[in-house]
Amino acid sequence: MRKPKSLYHGHRFPALDISHAVRWYFRFQLSLRDIEELLFERGVTVSYETIRRWCNKFGKGFAHRVKAARRKAGGTWHLDEMFVSLRGEQYLLWRAVDAHGAELDILLQKRRDKAAAKRFFKRVLRSNPVPHKIVTDQLRSYPAAKAELPELVNVKHVFVKAAARINNRAENSHQPTRERERRMRGFRDPARTQAFLSCFGPIRQHFALKRHLLRARLYRKQLAVCFAAWREFTNVTQNPSHAF
């Protein structure tokens, strides 16, 4: 019986180094050159372009595994949009989060009309069950698109004002994206931005525990669980505490 190929088949660097680089890039506000320096300090000589290729190749798969393993999405969707400038052109980043604040999906589009809202609804429905309730701002594209989707016709729709705190789950979910946008000095290419943010959200949230609500011992215990799950997602057997 033929042995299945390793996830890292064809790569001369150890799986642990690749896993670290991908996690650091999507988890922290680090540039590719920052990660190159961190790896060099630990005796790994690799160029930032190689790290970029690692992130492009493995990021999507790792993010998919993270999303598949997390707890079932809550019955409420919170939807919102934020403006993003790409080389001087205005785009809208549509985002859906559940009642727990977990990101369900994102979609970068140029328009804010019914067709764009319908496209986003369909995208979220492909990987999530039909919700019991949808919470949005007062953008009229949402109800117009929802009325044309049989799965969502009977779903309760709650409208809130943009400044209302009830939709803070969706609005607050934009903050890490804004921070990363500033760190990267703006996004540039629509396709690359969509690909990056699709990985950035799930991987960042996997490790983003609510530290201010946890005692130190419980926080470390939960973080250890996150790391153990990450090693499983990335097919790495070595414990990070024993690395380098």
TrEMBL record:
One of its GO terms (molecular function) is DNA binding. InterPro entries: DDE_dom, IS_Transposase, Transpos_IS6. Keywords: DNA recombination, DNA-binding, Plasmid, Transposition. The keyword Methyltransferase does not apply. GO terms for biological process: DNA recombination; transposition. Residues 76-206 form the DDE domain. It comes from the Bacteria. Pfam families: DDE_Tnp_IS240. PANTHER family: BLL1675 PROTEIN. NCBIfam families: transpos_IS6. This is Transposase.
